[in-house]
Amino acid sequence: MESARDLLVSLAQRYAFADLGALAPGVVKDASNIEVVCEFGQRLLSLDAEDFAVEARAVPSDLRRRARACTMPQTPREQPRGALESLRPAYALLLEVIAVRWYRRELSSMVAAVHIASEYLPLLAFEPVLGSAGDPARWPEGLSAPGSRFGVIGDRDCDHTKAEQSAVNRTLRVAQEPAEGWRAYLDRQHSQVAGALATCVAECRNPCTAMDWIQESRREDLARRARVALTFADTPLVRLRHAAPVGHGFGVPSPEEVLEAWDRSRTILSKNEMGREAAKDDGFPLPGLPSLFSAVAAAPLTPSTLLMDTATHLVKLLRL
């Protein structure tokens, strides 16, 4: 029995939450709390951000509180606002997930996490000027000022794609929609709004008044950070997500391919002064990635310890 418990401890230390949750009832007399904590950990690792099982009482309150800061609110008026208040806790978790997936050599899942990070990175850049992480319930009125083309569908002078125009039009009114429409918007369109905002401030060829609400003294800094976010989304590392030869899921990159793609990405990013932060050796499996995210956020970002602390709690439960 003790050797079986040692195996479960090893699974916890390897963040194998799903396997541990499945095996624990055959080893531990009352494994109900362990199973609940394993579900919590697996949701974190899988970035299943609807709720992260934050109401599970078997999970320590500190872990639930920290996980709640990474969730997306499931209704327009839900409080607290979680990742719509600030994306910084969510990016700290993303960095930890990327590191754990690398450690477990789950490279397809790792690249998927990198891809998610790339989609919302412009909102991380906008957070200091918005005062939120792009909460549709708190968009500044200036986005719809006279002369703004923000969210005007079919305007040919706007540099947004048709999909972005549709998403931007929706974001300006989605806070008044029922919960089902709100969740559908978050699932399908919110990341497109992130890219559209970055285009407005950093790459628009026909600027309108949509960004005039930003103080001129802050606009150039924001444009640099948003430009880095757009560049990152088109790097070889992020493109690995779509590199499978026969559709998604049929090609898994090797560690060497991931590192080679990241090296090429760092070269591309370094053409921008702020993007040179990616060239730093900060001890991360993809060296420089936390430094790059910190530069875009204009705030220090390091990997969270949510997964590690969840695993540590599971070890304590197994050794009771």
Automatic annotation (TrEMBL):
Protein origin, superkingdom: Bacteria
Full protein name: Uncharacterized protein
